[in-house]
Amino acid sequence: MSKIRVAVIGCGAIAQRRHIIEYQTNEHVELVAFVDPVLERAEQCAAPFGAKAYADYTVMLKEIKPDAVSVCTPNATHAIISIAAAEAGAHVLVEKPMASTDKEAAQMIEAAKKNGVMLMVGHNQRFMPPHVKAKEILKSGVLGKVLSFRTSFGHPGPEGWSVDGKESWFFRKEEAIMGAMGDLGVHKSDLIRWLLDDEVADVAGFIGTVSKQDTDVDDSANCILRMKSGAIGSLVASWTYYKGEDNSTVLWCENGVMKIGTDPEDQVIVELRNGNVERYKVGAIATNTVQVTSGVIDEFVHCIVTNTPPSISGEEGRKSLNVILAAFESQATGKMISLN
Amino acid sequence: MSKIRVAVIGCGAIAQRRHIIEYQTNEHVELVAFVDPVLERAEQCAAPFGAKAYADYTVMLKEIKPDAVSVCTPNATHAIISIAAAEAGAHVLVEKPMASTDKEAAQMIEAAKKNGVMLMVGHNQRFMPPHVKAKEILKSGVLGKVLSFRTSFGHPGPEGWSVDGKESWFFRKEEAIMGAMGDLGVHKSDLIRWLLDDEVADVAGFIGTVSKQDTDVDDSANCILRMKSGAIGSLVASWTYYKGEDNSTVLWCENGVMKIGTDPEDQVIVELRNGNVERYKVGAIATNTVQVTSGVIDEFVHCIVTNTPPSISGEEGRKSLNVILAAFESQATGKMISLN
Amino acid sequence: MSKIRVAVIGCGAIAQRRHIIEYQTNEHVELVAFVDPVLERAEQCAAPFGAKAYADYTVMLKEIKPDAVSVCTPNATHAIISIAAAEAGAHVLVEKPMASTDKEAAQMIEAAKKNGVMLMVGHNQRFMPPHVKAKEILKSGVLGKVLSFRTSFGHPGPEGWSVDGKESWFFRKEEAIMGAMGDLGVHKSDLIRWLLDDEVADVAGFIGTVSKQDTDVDDSANCILRMKSGAIGSLVASWTYYKGEDNSTVLWCENGVMKIGTDPEDQVIVELRNGNVERYKVGAIATNTVQVTSGVIDEFVHCIVTNTPPSISGEEGRKSLNVILAAFESQATGKMISLN
Amino acid sequence: MSKIRVAVIGCGAIAQRRHIIEYQTNEHVELVAFVDPVLERAEQCAAPFGAKAYADYTVMLKEIKPDAVSVCTPNATHAIISIAAAEAGAHVLVEKPMASTDKEAAQMIEAAKKNGVMLMVGHNQRFMPPHVKAKEILKSGVLGKVLSFRTSFGHPGPEGWSVDGKESWFFRKEEAIMGAMGDLGVHKSDLIRWLLDDEVADVAGFIGTVSKQDTDVDDSANCILRMKSGAIGSLVASWTYYKGEDNSTVLWCENGVMKIGTDPEDQVIVELRNGNVERYKVGAIATNTVQVTSGVIDEFVHCIVTNTPPSISGEEGRKSLNVILAAFESQATGKMISLN
Amino acid sequence: MSKIRVAVIGCGAIAQRRHIIEYQTNEHVELVAFVDPVLERAEQCAAPFGAKAYADYTVMLKEIKPDAVSVCTPNATHAIISIAAAEAGAHVLVEKPMASTDKEAAQMIEAAKKNGVMLMVGHNQRFMPPHVKAKEILKSGVLGKVLSFRTSFGHPGPEGWSVDGKESWFFRKEEAIMGAMGDLGVHKSDLIRWLLDDEVADVAGFIGTVSKQDTDVDDSANCILRMKSGAIGSLVASWTYYKGEDNSTVLWCENGVMKIGTDPEDQVIVELRNGNVERYKVGAIATNTVQVTSGVIDEFVHCIVTNTPPSISGEEGRKSLNVILAAFESQATGKMISLN
Amino acid sequence: MSKIRVAVIGCGAIAQRRHIIEYQTNEHVELVAFVDPVLERAEQCAAPFGAKAYADYTVMLKEIKPDAVSVCTPNATHAIISIAAAEAGAHVLVEKPMASTDKEAAQMIEAAKKNGVMLMVGHNQRFMPPHVKAKEILKSGVLGKVLSFRTSFGHPGPEGWSVDGKESWFFRKEEAIMGAMGDLGVHKSDLIRWLLDDEVADVAGFIGTVSKQDTDVDDSANCILRMKSGAIGSLVASWTYYKGEDNSTVLWCENGVMKIGTDPEDQVIVELRNGNVERYKVGAIATNTVQVTSGVIDEFVHCIVTNTPPSISGEEGRKSLNVILAAFESQATGKMISLN
């Protein structure tokens, strides 16, 4: 089989640290083009692959006609670029949050459908071994029904992650649209929907800029969720955990509690009412491999190769996005927001 | 100085396990009367002290004219009894939540004021050594401003605590008015106000009965708080933590994080951005002594003896109560509620 | 339903510490008779239950006509008493090893069948939570095929367990027939058959009396087993582990290793080739409850009540016994012994 | 004194990782020749030393007339090459197992004797600090007589060790003669003889190929040993411990137990019946030095320099070999095999 | 053999908690008399044994003519009572410090010699398992020569130990003569002499009353010692270690360090320059048995029964005493004191 | 502001590993000259800075006229060089011990005063985070008065530290004047004075050469100190801690104990009489930064820049020196020495 010709649009941190590396090690892929408004950045990425570099993605799409693209641009342009790529006949892997509004998300889904290409959203938390193990345990039924939960994602902010540091687009509202909620919160809304195999019914949230200077995007959010199943819980996203970083989820269930990411040794811990305790060390992979391999790119390529619809579809990404958007609406209106 | 003649009204678990024991070991106190609608229960409590037992507190107040009373009845009667006691000239220590409505709380404060007696609310969390240490550290300034927080209190429910087990008044709404929120949530609203030396500005909450059968009081609540200082956080109260019990508070601050009650060895842990870590084991006292001595009764007696207004005054109790009531209002109206 | 009338035959340690206690807490059972050649011992056991005491089980069977019996006598008499009980119409729970020879075992099975009563053997290792968990994991397939194993059971000998200490029948060959192999080895042959869902094909063993004085029963045995599946492993039984007691089983499999009983904290540990580690603490129950409740008596009673054939049937006990007998034959003949 | 002129015959993994490195750091040695049927391999080894490379050891022996040789070839040629070297007047250090048959071993001993050269076998386990410490403790008498034991050596197989990976001679029976038993089992038969200062009286073993594909050498062996002293124990060699690698020995003695290699921190642990526990961390050396320096080469050179007969003589190697050969005979004949 | 008739003179804490209990469990002993100026105390001790009680030891010695006595009185009377007992023909076990002056010690030794009785001093540190193990290791030579050391004994003072609490004779100088130095320091001077098999050459000390009120005995002492071998070290005795109690000894030697009593788990730890570490848990006995059995009484009785001179003889006790006396002289004169 | 022109006199280990590195990273400093009698060493240090190299400091002072100098020469020349530098108008940072005699120290102070330059002594222990934290805790009063203490500093000797190894000037008495006491002891006399905010009243010491060969400087010292406040304690300096290295200080106080440097995890531990324990991990900085940055150079530069007298002044250095000199005098005279 001939290789899948892939173009990467947006050459910042997530492209450099995840997409490019993972495409590179996938035997089915040929990296053919890189796009970034800062052309030099695109060129640097392209050089090792003998690929072409572009400042304008429309030109690239026309000239290269890639089989597939990764959209790694600032949030504001996820939709427009994804739609253009779909229109150009390319399968689309778009970073999270997939879009800035529900309408955009709907249009992206529609464009992919119309053009017969796949649309997948980069919600990599679903592939992390602790989350895979947690879901497996929940499905086994040993814990019974989930009654309440807490899921949070906090770190000191994108200053240390973005290739542009404090000058990152993450802090410019017109490009980022959202701050910590778009960066981290949507990871957790997607995770909790997937883990519980449940949908969010109602959301309320306090979202603000409590610490960062010279930006008007949110750096801290505390939300509460009511699931369709009746379970209630909290979702926290923060760029102001200057110490005490946290990517954890705790689920209190009928028969005990499951703790994910609360212990440095054992990533999943199940404590049952009958006194039994189960501890799972599933981070060895996470540290050695998934650090490099998020699982997202391989899944995307696998879907293309096998012509299988991706499990993290546009519809899935849209639902996870809508939880976050509802939280913003709650903050803006002072009301709890119901999702359909 | 002659001893303070104290009557205990309501002879259930909290009276038996805290109030009576702590009055008994306080040299300034003479226990003179016990009241419980189940007269036998009052008699059993009274016997060791040669005190009198009553089924009706109004009769007791008239006959005994106590110097002070502890009000340990179900929540619904806190106000009416406290007011009657104040009218009878007795200082009042009332269990939390001090009342069922803000109006009741206001009347209690007014009654105490009018009759020149003290009114104190049993918010014992303020006296727990880890909380005392935490406040001391916050005041030192080493952590800087609090940016966000999480405070939670969860256990498997009052079935195992109440002297009546599953038949406890805790599960009867007309007497309890509130469930986990009245039992546990109000502890945490009081704690967070006191720890941060700050007031709650806005509240939203999802409160429900997600697990308990045959009751219509709440067993699970997830709330979000915005403080006047701008800090935002979450407050959780639950009777459905069947495993993974939790009475913890985590504060993310400008200079690091403080974790209270998250580690079985060290009750307060401070991790600073500069890499320093401070660990405080202050539970030895908590386990040996405070388990028995909450600190509340000694403080109440001390205030009477020295004629000092209690730090956990009716006003304080009222503010902490109003946070909880606002959460209920939020649940009922689907709106975020602002407090004045 | 009327209660099952049970007689206990043999009133030594195993009767006192397991059978009587467990029958006593089973609501379906009435203990009606106790038999021991030392009549006083039978009387002491009988007294709390207002039961009758006998020195001769034949008299008891005739007079009492029990619904069921536990046979807790020295090994040599397991068969004759079990057969007599079956002939008297009683269901039989016999301690392990069920008999001294294969012929006896066959006669016991035949007697039970002929008289329409149940015959169950007291192989309690199958009910221990770590073993239940281990079997569940093996069945899940995560470890793949078992390739080799080691199972051992060693302690300092029955001197400290038997009610007669150093004078115990355990050391008298005419009554015990076997030493450590009958006491401990047959537990492990039964366990390995059940855990692996496999049968022993070939056995060799070195069995001797390497430390105990004044006895000619075996105190130490090292055997090797080849299973029908091709897996090979070792089985050790010892009364001379004066320190370093051990009741452990390790299974090396295609995908990793499972360690049972090797760690004081986590009774089952699974280490997979992919780096994942799973640790199960399932001993809380083992320590609090199973210490008292082996599970054997409840299962026996349950089978009678529901008229279900016991899973640890005479046939099962016979196969486990034959592994041990083959090891003795190997020791005696210098040959490896094949089992059918 | 002039340097000892050494030739290495066979340039695979054991030569590269142990012999050459250790000769190189020994001040008394000059590496003068390297032999390997793959001449390039010999040349690569020879280059750094300005030594000569040969494909044929007979030519080398004639041309170079080395003072000493290391025989690091596949098992099948240990004897013929060692004898040729001895005839050529060279001292011989031969890897374990020293030969394929007892007859070969006898001839090697005879050849060395006749030609007045030393014959030493590379049983490096005797030099490992934990084993040295264990022997010292056994000799002190604190543990009393050894009653039973377990010694095992298992890893995932030579695929990851041999320079030829899955194509290694280890898997070709005509060259390897034995699989895991020759690779690992003979280490443990030598160790147990040396540690206990005792000889094996009887052996039985189940030896098979339970997991490896495309080979007919053994990958798994479970043996039982009876020592002349009466102690009985088990010896396991395996190439199918895909996880749970193990090079441990446990000795149950009259006064307690000694555990060697069972704990990652403390390589030797003694637990006494009187409650005392002694823990020895003697692995620091093992990791830093012995990883590189097995001790074998230094001992061999020391023997030559001081004209001292090597402690691990041909006779010793022969006895350790015969234990393994007896196990194979047991497997083949279905009988226990007595050693003289 | 008839039993040794023993009298205990002085019925305070050390008599009650060690001497009486240990005599009682020694099969060779009959407790025949108890002496205490507080006659009731003597009577209470005597009652369980049907022994006689005296207020005056001279009367007791005349009337009872005991075979042996324990002298458990305040330090000031050790000499006079021991001499009287020896004159009365009784073997003498005297508590430490054996006397208040060197002259007294000499007279005691002389009296014992003249009357043909044994004189033993209660230096129980020599029998503690960690010290026994430490001496064994030092003697093995593995550590080489001791170069320097630190030995200390500190606790919060005898208030919590003495049967008279704060009113104890320990605080009255005319009876105690010395404070912490007599109570604890002499233990360490004896220990270091015995452990190192060496004698103290020079001593200097700062000794004072730094914390205790209403007493003029020393509560804190820091001394430095130069041994005849050249090793130098420090000796600390303190009654003001209100937290951080300590009975430890650290020896820095040519080949490494030995730490005794510095770790709660392992009482003796040897760390060698070559990286090896040896850890000895020898406290199990210390906790279970020696807590009750110091070893001193059994040794004393054993010496009498076997007519063997005690290893902790009067001469030994005298030398250990003289180290302490020299420290006091140093404090008084501002000079270093040489011992012969 | 123009940069401070600094010359480093003496280019051995302390200059290379601390002074030069720390000057280099201080933005206010320009390194202009390096002096060492081994001119090549000075040249190597000077090269990276384009600085000048000298063998003679008098020449350098005249030619360069530095603003400030670091005196990193052997102890014997600290005074003469410091005085010359001061006379040349340079601020002086001199390594500890600042001088060899009190007279020298006085002259250095006088010279600095006369020439209006600063004189600072390199007592870096005061800047180590654990010591800073310890002093902060002592000042808070929580521990009450210090009653007794132990402070020690021991390692295997300067062989492994000095750039000249065993040939180091540290072992030549005419240059070093003192051995372990000058290298380590003066650190601890300075630390204890500073930590306790107290002065030493009396000193006694045993100082000797117990292990090093071919040198007559001291390698081991045990001293006792009496502070003006009455606290007594010990001070140990050793070059013969071949294992068990130690830089620890323990303070026993009225309300508990503070342990500094006794635990590898937590550098400061406070254990209070009320059972509370506080653990401080303040070594992260110590390891990452202070390893490189002692704090001394930055402080020296800061004092010059801000024209602030240094806290570790010549007077401070002189007092700390005099404690050590008194210990030597004690050793020499056999008397305790009082300091004024």
Short structural description:
Six copies of one chain form a homohexamer. The first copy, chain A, is α/β, with parallel strands linked by helices and 340 residues long.
**Full CATH superfamily name of the largest domain in chain A:** Dihydrodipicolinate Reductase, domain 2
The CATH architecture of the largest domain in chain A would be 2-Layer Sandwich
Q: In CATH terms, what is the fold-level topology of the largest domain in chain A?
A: Dihydrodipicolinate Reductase, domain 2
Molecular shape of chain A? globular
CATH top level of the largest domain in chain A is Alpha Beta
Multimer state? homohexamer
Kindly name the structural category of chain A.
alpha/beta
| Beta-strand residue fraction of chain A | 25-35%
Instruction: State the total count of DSSP E strands of chain A.
Output: 15
Low confidence ranges of chain A? 284-290
Overall number of structural domains of chain A: 2
Trace the largest sheet of chain A across and list its strands: 14-13-12-11-7-10-9-8-15
Q: Helix and strand succession of chain A?
A: EHEHEHEHEHEHEHHEEEEEEEHHHE
